[in-house]
């Protein structure tokens, strides 16, 4: 079980994010100390092909998030297509079919804002490459609640709009290359 | 640190507002999944122009019109006709052959919101020649949503999606047979609701709704916490006839429920369950 003391990682991205995640997630060891909650924008009609794609390449467990599922450290949970992913204060996951946010469902803002509420200063949120502004307001909420805000360097991103908007909304966010983000996560394992 | 303290106050305000809503108006959202309800209340606070959740609560207690405005946020349910076409295809191909053996049928759309699912089922049953022997019950807790369901009017720009879904569900007719277009709206034929009973009903606070052959309750239970889910699923089970069918949303499951043993996984991938009695 996860709670505010073990913390969590929340990651959001859109265009190019699958490739970015393929650089990040396989670097994590099986006993990574926190759960990883992930929203990637995918067309709503396409069934979630992300989980099988990552399962074969990662040492951490990878699965689709289920409603009311307790989270566990060392597991990556992908939001299912066409549902928002939220997390409750006790670390369990919630899904919702509320209206689109930033033209997206799942929305990164929805995940980040719920996770900021649930985990406060024990949350690390990462905005990756993407071609829209989802995630910017959520990242601001994460930083406002005392969490760590990281943004993929727009200069190296496949699509710069999303990380650029995130830095504008959340100036205290740290801008990092993918390699630096991977090193940061590895540092959490050592701690 | 101040942000964390402020959040603590907001959580307290939310708990108090939900308590006030229940004690004043008997709408019980206290056991809804909290992250989602908080998001909706914050949205209501901002869009209705209140400075705090407490200010919203004050208005809720003293201004009768605030209740309906707030309910619009708390029960907001967006749907589409024939959402998840494979669900409707499974009903058509797997469930209806069973239902066809009954001389009369009762179908309940629990949490019908604006009626998209209800009209989808009415069209499906008409296409399959079962409408004449069926009574549909469409229930929701929000009176405004029930009115919208009864009106059966949707923005025309959504109809393209509805039409594609209907075709993918195995539709035997053209969706355009069932509505007339008028000033950007699609007005669905009133004959589709000639066998529909619209009613106010809460899965949280109301009782069994009897002897249904099919209950469709999709993307309603995900808004409940685990304990309330169990209560609602028990109510749904008790509302089903023997061997009656229950359809849930594509990401809902009875797997974690205390009532799992009361149901057979009739079509696992489509989230269609069948009541089984020991």
How can the largest sheet of chain A be summarized?
Answer: 7 strands, parallel
Q: Which class do the helix and strand fractions of chain A yield?
A: alpha/beta
Top CATH class of the largest domain in chain B: Alpha Beta
Strand content of chain B: 15-25%
- CATH topology of chain A, which one? Rossmann fold
Count of folded domains of chain B: 2
> Largest interface, by Cβ-Cβ below 8 angstroms: which chains and how many residues each?
A-B, 28 and 27 residues
Between the first and last Cα atoms of chain A, what is the distance in angstroms? 19 Å
Overall 3D form of chain B: globular
How far apart the termini of chain B lie comes to 55 Å
The number of E-state strands of chain A comes to 9
The poorly predicted ranges of chain B are: 1-6
Using brief descriptors, characterize the structure shown:
heterodimer, A: alpha/beta, Rossmann fold, two-stranded antiparallel sheet, globular, B: 278 residues, alpha/beta, 2 domains, three-stranded antiparallel β-sheet, 9 helices, 18% strand, disordered N terminus
What does this structure look like?
The complex is a heterodimer of chains A (191) and B (278). Chain A is of the alpha/beta class. Chain A has a single domain (8-190), classed as 3-Layer(aba) Sandwich (Rossmann fold). Chain A is 30% helix and 21% strand. In chain A, the strands form 2 sheets. A 7-stranded parallel β-sheet of chain A has the order 3-4-2-1-7-8-9. In chain A, β7, α4 (136-144) and β8 (148-152) form a beta-alpha-beta unit. Chain A starts with 7 loop residues before the first strand and ends with a helix. Chain B folds into 2 domains: 2-74, no CATH class; 85-275, Vaccinia Virus protein VP39 (Rossmann fold, 3-Layer(aba) Sandwich), CATH 3.40.50. Helix content of chain B is 44%, strand content 18%. A 7-stranded mixed β-sheet of chain B has the order 6-2-1-7-8-10-9. In chain B, strands 3-5-4 form a 3-stranded antiparallel β-sheet. In chain B, α1 runs parallel beside α3 and α2 (34-47) packs across α4. The termini of chain B are far apart. Residues 1-6 of chain B have low confidence and may be disordered. The A-B interface holds A 66-68, 80, 82-84, 86-89, 92, 94-99, 110, 113-114, 117-118, 120-121, 144-146 and B 1, 3-4, 7, 33-36, 38-40, 76-79, 219, 222-223, 225-226, 229, 249-253, 256.
């Amino acid at each position: 079980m996860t709670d505010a003391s073990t913390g969590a990682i929340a990651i959001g991205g859109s265009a190019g994010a699958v490739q970015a995640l393929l650089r990040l997630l396989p670097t994590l060891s099986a006993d990574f100390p926190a759960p990883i909650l992930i929203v990637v924008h995918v067309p709503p009609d396409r069934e979630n092909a992300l989980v099988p794609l990552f399962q074969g390449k990662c040492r951490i467990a990878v699965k689709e998030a289920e409603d009311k599922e307790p989270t566990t450290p060392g597991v990556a949970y992908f939001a299912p297509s066409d549902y928002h992913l939220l997390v409750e204060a006790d670390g369990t996951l919630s899904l919702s079919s509320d209206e689109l946010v930033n033209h997206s469902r799942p929305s990164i803002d929805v995940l980040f804002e719920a996770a900021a509420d649930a985990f406060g200063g024990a949350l690390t949120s990462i905005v990756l490459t993407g071609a829209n502004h989802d995630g910017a307001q959520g990242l601001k909420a994460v930083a406002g609640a005392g969490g760590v805000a990281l943004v993929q360097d727009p200069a190296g991103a496949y699509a710069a709009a999303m990380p650029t908007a995130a830095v504008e909304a959340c100036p205290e966010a740290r801008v990092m290359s993918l390699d630096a983000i991977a090193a940061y996560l590895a540092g959490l394992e050592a701690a | 640190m101040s942000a964390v303290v402020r959040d603590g106050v907001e959580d307290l305000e939310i708990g108090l507002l939900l308590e006030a809503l229940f004690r004043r108006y008997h709408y019980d959202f206290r056991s809804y999944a909290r992250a989602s309800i908080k998001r909706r209340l914050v949205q209501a606070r901002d869009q209705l122009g209140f400075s705090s959740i407490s200010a919203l609560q004050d208005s809720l207690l003293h201004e009768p019109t605030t209740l309906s405005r707030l309910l619009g946020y708390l029960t907001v349910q967006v749907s589409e006709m024939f959402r998840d076409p494979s669900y409707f295809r499974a009903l058509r191909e797997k469930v209806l052959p069973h239902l066809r053996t009954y001389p009369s049928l009762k179908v309940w759309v629990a949490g019908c919101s604006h009626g998209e699912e209800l009209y989808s089922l009415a069209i499906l049953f008409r296409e399959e020649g079962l409408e004449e022997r069926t009574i549909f019950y469409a229930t929701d807790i929000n009176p405004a949503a029930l009115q919208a369901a009864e009106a059966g009017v949707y923005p025309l720009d959504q109809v393209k999606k509805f039409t594609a879904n209907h075709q993918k569900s195995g539709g035997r007719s053209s969706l355009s047979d069932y509505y007339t277009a008028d000033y950007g709206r699609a007005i669905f034929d009133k004959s589709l609701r000639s066998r529909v009973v619209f009613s106010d009903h809460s899965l949280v606070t109301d009782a069994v709704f009897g002897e249904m052959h099919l209950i469709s309750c999709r993307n309603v239970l995900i808004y409940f916490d685990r304990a309330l889910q169990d209560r609602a699923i028990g109510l749904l089970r008790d509302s089903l006839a023997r061997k009656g069918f229950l359809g849930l949303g594509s990401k809902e499951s009875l797997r974690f429920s205390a009532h799992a043993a009361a149901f057979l996984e009739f079509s696992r991938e489509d989230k269609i369950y069948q009541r089984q009695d020991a």
